[in-house]
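Thread: Modeling a multi-component assembly for a lab meeting

Hi all, long-time lurker, first post. My supervisor asked me to bring a structural picture of a complex we are working on to next week's group meeting, and I have zero experience with this. I have the sequence lines for every component (860 residues in total). Could someone generate the structure of the whole assembly? Inputs are pasted exactly as I received them:
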Amino acid sequence: MAIYRKTHWTSEIKPELDGKEVTLSGWVWEIRDVGRIKFIMLRDREGMVQVTVKRSSVSDETWDTVSRLSKEDVVSVRGIVRASKVAKTGVEVEPIEVRLLNKANPLPIDIWGNVDETMLDLRLRYRTVDLKRRSNVILFKALSEVVKAMRTTLYGYGFIEVFTPKIIATSTEGGAELFPVQYFERTAYLAQSPQLYKEELTASLERVFEIGPAYRAEKHDTTYHVNEFISVDAEAAFMNYRDVMSVLEDVIVESYRASVDLLSQIGREVRVPSKPFKVITYDDALSMLDKEGIKVKWGDDVPKEGLEALSRLIGEPFFIIHFPTMLRAFYTKPIEGDESRSESFDLVIDGMEVTSGSTRIHDKDELEKAMRARGLNPGNFSTHLEIYSWGMPPHAGWGLGLYRLMMVMAGVRNIREVILFPRDRYRLVP
Amino acid sequence: MAIYRKTHWTSEIKPELDGKEVTLSGWVWEIRDVGRIKFIMLRDREGMVQVTVKRSSVSDETWDTVSRLSKEDVVSVRGIVRASKVAKTGVEVEPIEVRLLNKANPLPIDIWGNVDETMLDLRLRYRTVDLKRRSNVILFKALSEVVKAMRTTLYGYGFIEVFTPKIIATSTEGGAELFPVQYFERTAYLAQSPQLYKEELTASLERVFEIGPAYRAEKHDTTYHVNEFISVDAEAAFMNYRDVMSVLEDVIVESYRASVDLLSQIGREVRVPSKPFKVITYDDALSMLDKEGIKVKWGDDVPKEGLEALSRLIGEPFFIIHFPTMLRAFYTKPIEGDESRSESFDLVIDGMEVTSGSTRIHDKDELEKAMRARGLNPGNFSTHLEIYSWGMPPHAGWGLGLYRLMMVMAGVRNIREVILFPRDRYRLVP
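Re: Modeling a multi-component assembly
Sure thing. I ran the full set together rather than chain by chain. Output:
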């Protein structure tokens, strides 16, 4: 075992441990010197604890080590926990030994003050340092909790986790622009989503989900687009759009639940939304927007400002359903008897489209027709289409932008804040 | 709610439900006709149940539908559960209504017999159909259970799940060949592993893991290499190689536990290995192999046949530790006082290298020296190296090939069997 392996996180050091020997490892947050006593505030991922070093009770070597410490040095402290009336947390650690594990130079950016949104570019340039900031540590702990909650919810509905290829032969889905990959002698592409694969898997595994990277080669320059993102995809046989909307509601509610405490630690108070979410049709949305002076032509997408206006009016997460069929991808099932509209939905939170989904077409002829209606050549989809002859079940599903959800939950203005190392039009490093 | 939404999986239909109305949806496995009674064996992901259709108790429409059914048709059955002494599972369903949801043509490959390994190419060509095979459904359920168990184990050790970019600017790690990506005006690459990112994250999140795709553009043509695979990566601050080996042991044991029941359903009896795993040094391995007539020069990698021989001798999962330093990547920490050997390990199961790991160098000067010793130019790593000046903790970690582990657990001969849609030198479709 490493001598610096911690026995406890700093947050676990409580007065109840009085008298116990512990090993803590972390970073020097602050060091104060009052002559023959020095106070080290030792930080790790989970919190902070005071280490009280008395000249009289440590070796010359440890005293010497402590005397030369400065901010962000990496140290390991072996010592005895002491309940204390003086220390802020009611507890301190009296070291037996303090080891300097790595000396730190002054940091290139501030990590002690509040997040400065205007300094985002600089912070991303030094992202590894920026991530030491307490609010970032908590944000990314929350993100981990959110995906954990999503999976638990989906397992509960009988979904199986799958991994589909991210290198694909052709631009099968149509629509988005793709990044080309040199795959040995051929040109391949990075998948924009696992859409066709997850649909195909409903024919065997019935209910599948995937949480993995997706790529769009679009030249966006907004606060809510990036070129590599994490897509949460679910697809289920023998369900329609209403059924998967209901699954999605639980996924969203559990995501909020999983992050509400952590986010409150960084001053973000979120309210867990209650089910069922409000549902409006696309036609409703257009009427509501019309009254707000925002004109959207039937058949056009609701623009960002329209989504924002609707969120202001509705005040909580809501679904827009029944989009014009031709506004959606070819695999979207039209409503029977009202074919110009579709069994589709978007989930909107705080003016942000977080999820899109629908019942999918499972009939081969209909699917071919839908491709042709969009100017796509069914011949390019032959290995996908053939599958519909061998027992394709009715199915439905959705794709959720993980970072978009995190962005609205955390209330940050730029999606890059919730991505460890974002990839955008101009950013490929670090 | 969709009319075909199932209330139960077929496996949930037990005699205790006698008299209850249920909706089941799935595929026709078999249909037998004894005049005025027809028996449908209805299959879904979880199992199979007998549907007994009596001419006298169904509508003309349902009788007509059932009369025209053939294998693999997609159907939905609403009916009453009846405990039955005659039916194999002690239970059957008497339908009120049977709907044909999608007609199936004869399948292009056999899914009823045992897996034919020699037909792998053909089976992969029709992978969506091949996945309907019961053994495949169970295999991929097991894979989902395995990643679930891995995450649960890692959460238990305080690891946070992270997502790092798969598009990277340069071939930072050295070694493996990379796939180039056209990233707008620049050439970027697909990441061969999250190695440098996960190391960087130990400076803030301390313990991180990632389960995501990784890419090697190597022209392998073996049964245990593919060009896109799922890498399970863990990295922890304030741990050394021994500490992360211990975490890994738990991850492996829990992976076996999670899949043992499922695998036994497809005739694969696995024994959950017990901790601690056997540990031999690289030098031990060479002596053992020498006695077996397999000569490996000190400093060379142990060849596949050597790993297989060692597995035969040892008979259970084992670690090889202390590899020659120069055999490992630049970030591998040499042993203090025996610098030609390193604090490194491989986990070998059934002759397969499943995991590699090590203590990493956390000192900037040492890291630069290690790069130079391997002919790498530290200037190409400047944004990675600079981080080591700002409080880089000692750390260690490993990378595990998910499909390799699944391959040895499931006892399949070709890694492609455990991948939904494998990507290799010649395979980019489906």
